[in-house]
Write a sequence for this structure.
C-alpha cells in the first residue's frame, strides 16, 4: 500500500510540474519577455519568410519556445526555437514549407514596438553544434539540440493555429 501511495504521489508531482510549463506564453514565460515582445517575435519570423524564394506559401504560421532572455543596457536578447509552417491557398492548406530553427533575437524598444538589432541562427550540418555554443548560453545548448528533433514540442500548438485558419477560410 505504501508503495502505491508513493508511486501515486510521484506521478502527481510529474503531472503538476509539467502542467505548469508553458511553451510560448509570455505571461508564464521567462522574465523579461512580455506578451508584446512575444507577439513581435512571432510576426518577425512570419515576415522573415514572406517573399523568400524557398517559401512559395501564401500563409505562414509560427510558434516558439523561449528558453530565456538577457537584458543588457536598453536591449533584450531572447533565446528561442521557432517552428514555422507555410501553406498555399491553391493547394487547399497543404503544407508547402516548414522549419524548426533555434535563434537569438535582440530587441530594442522603439516607441510602441520593437526593432530587431541582431538576429542569429546557427548554420547547418557540421557548423550547428559549434554555432549553438557560440550563440546560446551553455545552459540551453543541450535542450535546444534535443528540441530540434521534436519541433520543440510545438506541433500541437501549430496544429491549433492551422485548424483555426482552415475554419476561417471555409467561412469566406
Amino acid at each position: 500500500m505504501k508503495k502505491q501511495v508513493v508511486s501515486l504521489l510521484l506521478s502527481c508531482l510529474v503531472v503538476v510540474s509539467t502542467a505548469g510549463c508553458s511553451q510560448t506564453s509570455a505571461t508564464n514565460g521567462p522574465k523579461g519577455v512580455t506578451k508584446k515582445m512575444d507577439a513581435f517575435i512571432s510576426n518577425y519570423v512570419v515576415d522573415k519568410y514572406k517573399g523568400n524564394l524557398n517559401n512559395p506559401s501564401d500563409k505562414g504560421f509560427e510558434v516558439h519556445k523561449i528558453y530565456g532572455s538577457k537584458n543588457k543596457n536598453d536591449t533584450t536578447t531572447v533565446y528561442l526555437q521557432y517552428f514555422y509552417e507555410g501553406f498555399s491557398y491553391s493547394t487547399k492548406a497543404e503544407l508547402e514549407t516548414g522549419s524548426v530553427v533555434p535563434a537569438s533575437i535582440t530587441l530594442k524598444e522603439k516607441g510602441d514596438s520593437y526593432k530587431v538589432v541582431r538576429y542569429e541562427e546557427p548554420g547547418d550540418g557540421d557548423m550547428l553544434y559549434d554555432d549553438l555554443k557560440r550563440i546560446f548560453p551553455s545552459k540551453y545548448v543541450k535542450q535546444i539540440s534535443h528540441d530540434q528533433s521534436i519541433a520543440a514540442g510545438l506541433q500541437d500548438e501549430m496544429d491549433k493555429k492551422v485548424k483555426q485558419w482552415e475554419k476561417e477560410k471555409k467561412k469566406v
